[in-house]
Amino acid sequence: MKKLIYTIVVLLVALHSQAQSPVVNIEDDNGERPQNIYYKDVNNLLDPYVGTYIYTNGTTSLKFVLQKKVQAFDGWLYEDVIIGEYQYIENGVEKVNTLNNLNINHLNSWKYNILGNQIIKIGLPGCEECTPTEKRIKLSLRDTLSGAWARLFFAKVLVNGQQAIRLNLMWDLRTHIYGTPELIPVSFPGGEFILIKQ
């Protein structure tokens, strides 16, 4: 009987220790992406970017809604991420709107059209006037109409005392192969935008 109890205890301890994912600060993500690791936002660097942000220029607007998802699993590893969706209106006409996708609790975060958690410390584009110690974030955006991907670089700024983000949006290069159907244009232009927090 003692042997049976001992065996059960050993098995439970072994199962418990295997179920624990190693926790790594997202600032220390080196790109290796081992299975079942948990990239945690230890210092809550993603939190200041959560919210609804709007850029307006006359009757043209770009709206981003960003949320933080804690310990999201993508089938390979766990991580704290920013997820989001967007709406673009040009000259009063809505060109694209994915905001309803945030109402769905996707098990895989890649089902959202804005996703990421990369902390940028120095060097990469998106903020020439940022200080060397200022931290920004990089996310990815999928255009649901064209299938194109963009890189989003965010920096926190103040505009007339209001919280805002400076967005540098860069569409990834796409190649058209002669003789195949023309590429669908992206839903909205790239460039730099100042989005005011609502």
How far is the N terminus from the C terminus? Answer: 65 Å
- Widest sheet: strand ordering: 3-4-5-7-8-9-10-11
Class from secondary-structure proportions:
mainly beta
Largest beta sheet, briefly? 8 strands, antiparallel, barrel
Query: Total strand count, please?
Result: 11
- What portion of residues belong to β-strands? 35-45%
Q: How much helix, percentage-wise, in residues?
A: under 10%
C-alpha-based Rg, rounded? 21 Å
Which regions have little confidence, pLDDT < 50, spanning 5+ residues? 9-19
Count of the domains: 1
Number of helices: 1
**Principal-axes shape call:** globular
Q: Residue-averaged pLDDT, rounded?
A: 86
Order of helices and strands: HEEEEEEEEEEE
Layout of helices and strands:
Blueprint: H1 2-19, E1 23-25, E2 38-40, E3 51-57, E4 60-73, E5 78-90, E6 93-97, E7 114-120, E8 136-142, E9 149-159, E10 162-171, E11 191-197
Parallel strand pairs: 1-2, 2-5
Antiparallel strand pairs: 3-4, 3-11, 4-5, 5-6, 5-7, 7-8, 8-9, 9-10, 10-11
Could you characterize the architecture of this molecule?
With 198 residues, the protein is mainly β. It has one domain (23-197). 9% of the residues lie in helices and 44% in strands. It has one helix and eleven strands, in the order H-E-E-E-E-E-E-E-E-E-E-E. It has an eight-stranded antiparallel β-barrel. Strand 5 (78-90) and strand 6 (93-97) form a beta hairpin. Residues 9-19 have low confidence and may be disordered.
What's the short version?
The protein is mostly beta strands and 198 residues long. Helix content is 9%, strand content 44%. About 6% of the residues have low confidence.
